[in-house]
Each structure stands twice: as C-alpha cells, then as structure tokens.
Amino acid sequence: MSARIPRDSDNDYTHEMAKARRDFVKDKCDASLENVGSYSFDPSVTAGNIENFIGVAQVPIGLAGPLLVNGEHARGEFYVPMATSEGTLVASYNRGMRLLREAGGATVTVVDDAMQRAPVFIFESARQARDFGLWIEVNFEQIKAVAETTTKTGKLRDIEQYAAARMRYLRFNFTTGDAAGQNMVGKATYVACEWIKKNYPDINRYMLSGAMDTDKKHSQLNTLRTRGKRVIAEAIVSSALIEKVMGVSAMALYKARSITQVGNFMAGSTNTGAHSANGITATFIATGQDVANVAESSSAVTYADIDEQGNYYLSITIPSLIVATYGGGTGLPTQQECLKLLGCEGEGKVRKLAEIIGATVLAGELSLMSAVLSGDWVASHDKLGRNGKVQHSSHTRSSGTLERDSDE
C-alpha cells in the first residue's frame, strides 16, 4: 500500500507538520526541500489557503515604476511589485511606465462589476423552460432577498437568461465588495436555487453550474458581458515622446497595430493586444490573487488611433479582471506587504487595485510593441533574460536601450 502524506487532524498548520511532510518527501522521493522550507511566517496563517503545507514557492519580485495613474480610485504615482521569473519583463514594464508618466499618465476607468454563478434548470419541454423564465422575472425581488441572506457584501444585481433545448440557463450577477467572490456567489446562488426549486414545482432537476459562469476559462460571453471588473486604460502620447523613449514613431506603432489585429483574427485569438497576461500574472502573484483567474482576466481588446498632429491614442479593455483586496491569498504576509506598497490593503480598495493593474497592462503594451519594431525585443532577452548572465553581443546597443530607458 502506498504511504500516506503525514497529517495531523487536530492541528495540521505547524512548523512540525510542515517539516514532517518535507522529511516524508526526502524519504520517498530523495529530494531535499531546503529552499521550499525557508519561509518567514507561521504556517497557521495559511489555514484556508492550502492543504498539506510544506513551504513556499519563492518567485522573485521586482519593482516597476513610478506608474502615473489618473483613475477614479487610484490617483498619483505608484511603484508596482511584479512577481516573475521572466528576465526583461520588469524592465520592459518599467520603460512603458516611464513613457506613460512623461505623457501625463494613464486614464483608467472601471466601467462594470459583476461576479457570476450560472445554474441550469431542466424541464420536460422547451415551452416549460420558457414559462419558467417568465416566472423568474416576476419573482426576481424575492430571489434576490433569499440569495443575499448568505452574505453581508454580496448583492444580486440581475439574472441573465439563456435558452437551449429544454433547459434554462440563469446567470446570476453579483457585486462582491472587496472579495473576488466566486465562493460567495456560489453559496448565495445555491440558497436561491433551493428556494426556486421549492416554489416552482415543474422543475425536473437543476445543476448549480451549467458552465456559463466560465470559472477559470475564457469565454466570449465574458468579453461582452463582464466577469469581475471591466477595466479600460487609455493614454494619448505624442509622436515626439514615443520616438524619444521608444525609438519608434507613433505612425509605425499605429500601422503595426493594424497588422497585428489581422494576425490575431486569423489565429482566433481572444486577445487583440500583445501580452496582457504578463503584467496581470506578475501582479496577481505579488498581491495574492487567484492566479488561475488569469485564464479569464488576460482577455483584452486593444484599440489604437492617431490624430492629425501625430498623437497616438492607445486603449486596452480588460473585460474580466478578477481581483480582490480581501479574502483568499490577499491576507498572506508577503501579499499583504505588496498590497500595502500599492496602498491597496483594507476595505474599499479593490477598484483602486484594478485601476493600477489596468495602467500596468497598458504600459506593457506600449513597451513590447515598441521593442518589436525597434529591434530591442530579441536583444534585450539576450542580455537580461539568460538566468542573470550578462550576454555580450553585437546587439548590446539596442538591449541597452531597453535597460537604460527603463531606469531613467
């Protein structure tokens, strides 16, 4: 019989139990976990975040900024912690932040806010399912009252309906305060569904999730309807400033966008930008977000324009940015420090964090596209992305441009 991982049913979150499991790994797998076992907090703080705790994954954190944000909740300059193992990433975002700062900052707006659970109700016929949908509309206020008995902060905003065969998919849309809210809305929707089942007798059966809430995966529905925060970051940058910082013209960037839009379309991409997942993932890890939500959160729509004076307008719409400043991993010690660095710890800060991340993503879009056009992209990875070893080549001028400009 295979040996079971050591556990203490009374108190499993202790230094002793963590060590017992590391010793177990050493015995069974002949692997030493000295670095995994080097951490600075009491294991008890991880209860509710992890099971069978053995230590930590230590991802390097770099600092980018200052990032100038003109938001409704985030206003001023911010230094952004970014957790990544990809060389050049922080330097690239740093350079984009410099460009935005000299251009007057990024304007960021949270235009929508909703977290979903989407149960499906099954009937004997499509006609019965249709009639059920009408009943849901009539009884919305009662359903809302029942759902909200399970939460202090969650509010049922509305219920979308989708019909297929003899099924009725209901997409419950909640606002969830400072929490990301997936568990919150799951519990609230379950209670509401049980009340619906009790009060509507013709239901054959229901499932709490019919998959139209699209947890941890992209969907076109979320691109249109929003999941989490819908964030739009935009900026106007003069061609002279782009040439000074990036070494390319505004017209070159504008034309490149039209080409990449076609490429993205042909590839069937869910993202018309360059690499929003990079900035989102790095800030997610640093601030204790559920990193699997990058599958949804990294979807993005970019739009570029250029005016008669040659000024370059760029915006990025992130329709499903799922972030929190309360709950989940945001309460862990390292992540708390990073949230405090951003001024996003405590209540009422989730939209501030969303705006900062939106501006960060915009900075990365400007920097990477410029690097692709100017020749910095490959050369900078040669110099900064080789496990810390400085590479000397005939291309050090262009890679030096990325490093030098990002630090000025």
Describe the structure.
Strand 5 and strand 6 (167-175) form a beta hairpin. This protein folds into three domains: 6-58; 61-112 and 228-385 and 394-407, 3-hydroxy-3-methylglutaryl-coenzyme A Reductase, Chain A, domain 2 (Alpha-Beta Complex); 119-207, Alpha-Beta Plaits (2-Layer Sandwich), CATH 3.30.70. With 408 residues, it is of the alpha+beta class. The chain is built from 14 helices and ten strands. Strands 1, 2, 3, 4, 5, 6, 7, 8, 9 and 10 form a ten-stranded mixed sheet that branches.
Tags for this entry?
ten-stranded mixed β-sheet, 3-hydroxy-3-methylglutaryl-coenzyme A Reductase, Chain A, domain 2, EC 1.1.1.34, disordered C terminus, 408 residues, NADP, HMG_CoA_Rdtase_NAD(P)-bd_sf, HMG_CoA_Rdtase
Structural class: alpha+beta
Mean pLDDT across residues:
91
The CATH top-level class label of the largest domain: Alpha Beta
Number of strands: 10
Total number of helices: 14
**Gyration radius, to the nearest Å?**
24 Å
Largest sheet: 10 strands, mixed
The CATH homologous superfamily of the largest domain corresponds to 3-hydroxy-3-methylglutaryl-coenzyme A Reductase, Chain A, domain 2
Order of helices and strands: HEEHEEHHEEHEHEHHHHEEHHHH
Report the portion of residues in β strands.
Answer: 15-25%
Q: What helical percentage do the residues reach? A: 40-55%
> Tell me, what's the shape?
globular
InterPro entries: HMG_CoA_Rdtase, HMG_CoA_Rdtase_cat_sf, HMG_CoA_Rdtase_eu_arc, HMG_CoA_Rdtase_NAD(P)-bd_sf, HMG_CoA_Rdtase_sub-bd_dom_sf
Enzyme class: oxidoreductase
Protein name: hydroxymethylglutaryl-CoA reductase (NADPH)
Keywords: NADP, Oxidoreductase
